Amino acid sequence: MEMKPHVSGYERGRNIVRVLVVLAIILGVAALMFTQENSREQMLLVIGSAACVVGVIVVARLLCVCPHCGKRIVSGVLVLRVCPKCRHDLLTGAKVKKQR
Ligand SMILES: [Zn+2]
Q1: How far apart are CA 71 and CA 33, in angstroms?
Q2: Cα–Cα distance list, 75 to 28, 64, 86 (Å)
Q3: What is the pTM of this model?
Q4: Other C-beta atoms within 10 Å of 53: how many?
Q5: Residues with Cβ–ion distance below 5 A, ligand 1
Q6: pLDDT tens digits for 40-94?
Q7: How far is the CA of 65 from the centre of ligand 1 (A)?
Q8: How many angstroms separate the alpha carbon of residue 69 from the centre of ligand 1?
């Protein structure tokens, strides 16, 4: 099992977060739409959805750090491209030129 060397931990973390967010939404919607209220199936789906949310938080805390200054990016992990603290690119760690 080989890891591509140019894929940063941040990018890996973000991909995992993305998958978990989608899963949490799917499970949450399924619990609301396709199960009977207060049924065992609904409980399981809700628990699964909550587990995905917890997973998002854990993965974001562990992997979603700026490669340059080490700042944790927890909120906005899916939209931010530049570190709000040091203004380096979160994927490459390169310095970002002045914004327009
Ligand atoms: Zn930074």
Answers
A1: 39
A2: 21, 10, 16
A3: 0.79
A4: 16
A5: 66, 68-69, 71, 83, 85-86
A6: 999 999 999 999 999 999 998 889 999 889 898 877 888 899 999 999 999 888 8
A7: 8
A8: 4
